[in-house]
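Ticket reopened. Same input as before:
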Amino acid sequence: MNHVTRELDRIHQEGEKIMKRRMGKEKNGEWNKLILERINQNERLFSKEESKVMSHHNKLIQKMYILGLTDNLGITKCLEKNKFHDIIGKTKGEINKMPNREQAIELLKKYNQEEFHLRHALTVEAVMKYFAKENGEDEEFWGLVGLLHDVDFEKYPEKHCQKAPELLQEIGANEDMIHAICSHGYGICSNLKPEKQMEKILFATDELTGLIWAAAKMRPSQSTKDMEVSSLKKKFKDKKFAAGCSRDTIKQGAEMLGWELSELLEKTILAMREAEDLVEKEMEEIK
Ligand SMILES: [Fe+2]
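Engineering reply: fixed in the latest deploy. New output:
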């Protein structure tokens, strides 16, 4: 048995151990039956942490199979032993592949020409990056999700969030990105619920950035830099002002996050304040 096969064998054994532990059965074969029972009873098979390990492992094996590196049981085909980690690294890279920003901008411009939509995309990108930084998360990923969240809206308003996966696949967006983007239309044009913190923040801030931008334009400074939460609250309550920005969606977003509405308003003003100059500069470049 060479190093590579041993390594994959070890991964399989670890996977099996987790499954057996969850099932409380040590005998081979019995857990298959139990899995079915649990599925039928709608019970959770693995803890969240274990699910992560299992799903990543399964994806890895699937991808290696697609790449012709393993057979369908995950048995590695004739690899030189010191290449194993390279291959695993590359395969993980494939699975977690993310488009770069230039590709994302190209895609955005391909399907969006209106200045308002481009500005909104750049604004939400910057806001998402601000929140990613605040949460110690992946700024690049959160930013790309923000940048492309409405990619299908200008050309396919009737199919918003439905057409997006197809367009996003043009640049090889991964499942996480597609889910995050489509879940921002939850309850309106999508059945996908925002699950992760990032998805909830996108849901909560999307409409709100529109409201803040409209409110900023009414100010003598035309800017968010001197905007107070109290004045934004007044605009929020005034239903006639920027009527297209759904107050219910914003409130629902704050609830999802477990934040007070004023907390959401304040944080989003701060995010937009920080982003304002950059967005202006990028608008010049993108045209
Ligand atoms: Fe949006």
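The chain has a mean pLDDT of 82. Residues 261-286 form the longest helix (26 residues). Please confirm and we'll close it.
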